[in-house]
Design a protein that fits this description.
Length: 335
């Protein structure tokens, strides 16, 4: 494959290959010298039309750890604010020799347009497009779940904080609950597709106004009652309430939302002992998750960010056809 646009495009073998490669990359990150020479001379462009902290920084860290040159482009402060189109921006990047373009865009479908337009020759990686998909987020989430939940020989959960890597395994039979603003969430859509591909059983929980039309065609269950689902979950993933994408008609009051769909200490206590709490970030503390839960040892939000670097290294490595996995310590540059 040349591009990564959608988690729905990944077969089980594709997904497991990326997850296993990310485990190799995580081992590199544990070494004193964290760099590999594999993408030396290649150029990765981070093309961000929408704000980001985690995704942009981790793609930059991932590309640099693979020794690629990195160009960071933010629409704010660029000629996009003078009206320059995606096409002309892409042609400019192509003129600079981009081997991969990592794009975040407010319009669903923008990465697909870039990949199929012929404007650029390099690989396109979707870093989040509108309400459509965020495939590397789903991959880092699956990586995190696999480390905590995969690998029990009897099919039962094996919870060990930061424990085994689950290499080669999928998430067959794991029960994953995704809670909150599903309507606006590219994270939820990508997770539903990828987790289904990896064998997990996914349940979405949301207020009726925040469930997308057509969800009955998604490979998951839908519930409106968080309390009935929490005790049966191996992982509970809380979604950010995306107030910037909604008006008052979507939303109960913040207090009512937190009461019915938020995760607090009492609800977390009703999760199975091995179960983890996840959040893609950024978090609205006090809305979808209380500070007590966000800061608890069961919450993997910070671990997810660290795992994001390994996943993005794996994706860039596999798409750009990196050569042998050798530490950069062996190269002349780092001697
Ligand atoms: N999870 C996520 O995509 O975070 P950012 O918006 O900070 O990149």
């Amino acid at each position: 494959k040349r591009h990564l646009i959608s988690a729905a495009d990944l077969s089980r073998d594709d997904a497991v290959l990326i997850l296993d490669t990310a485990e190799e990359m995580a081992r590199v990150a544990d070494r004193p010298i964290k760099k590999l020479p594999t993408l030396r001379g290649r150029t990765v462009v981070n093309l961000f039309f929408e704000d980001s902290t985690r995704t942009r920084i981790s793609f930059e860290a991932a590309a640099k750890r693979l020794s690629a040159d990195v160009i960071n482009f933010s629409a704010k402060g660029s000629s996009v604010s003078k009206g320059e189109s995606l096409k002309d921006t892409a042609l400019t990047l192509e003129a600079m020799g981009a081997d991969a373009v990592v794009i975040r865009h407010h319009a669903s479908g923008a990465p697909h347009r870039l990949a199929t337009s012929g404007w650029i020759n390099g690989s396109v990686v979707n870093a989040g497009d509108g309400t459509h998909e965020h495939p590397t987020q789903a991959l880092l989430d699956a990586f995190t779940m696999r480390r905590h939940l995969a690998g029990a020989p009897d099919g039962g959960p094996t919870h060990h904080q930061g424990g085994g890597d689950g290499t080669g395994r999928d998430l067959t039979g794991r029960r994953i609950t995704i809670v909150g603003d599903v309507l606006h969430s590219r994270v939820a859509r990508s997770n539903v597709h990828l987790l289904h591909t990896l064998g997990a059983e996914v349940t979405l929980v949301a207020p009726p106004t925040l469930v997308p039309i057509g969800v009955e065609r998604w490979p998951c269950e839908v519930s409106y009652d968080l309390d009935s689902v929490v005790p049966k979950s191996d992982a509970v993933m809380m979604l950010r309430v995306q107030r910037e994408r909604m008006n008052a008609a979507f939303f109960p009051t913040e207090r009512e939302y937190a009461r019915r769909y938020g995760l607090d200490g009492d609800r977390m206590a009703r999760m199975p002992e091995h179960a983890i709490v996840m959040h893609p970030g950024p978090m609205n503390r006090g809305m979808e998750i209380t500070a007590e839960v966000a800061d608890s040892r069961r919450c993997t939000a910070v671990e997810q960010v660290a795992n994001g670097v390994s996943i993005r290294m794996a994706v860039l490595y596999l798409l750009l056809g990196g050569a042998v996995l050798e530490p950069a310590a062996e190269s002349a540059e780092t001697k």
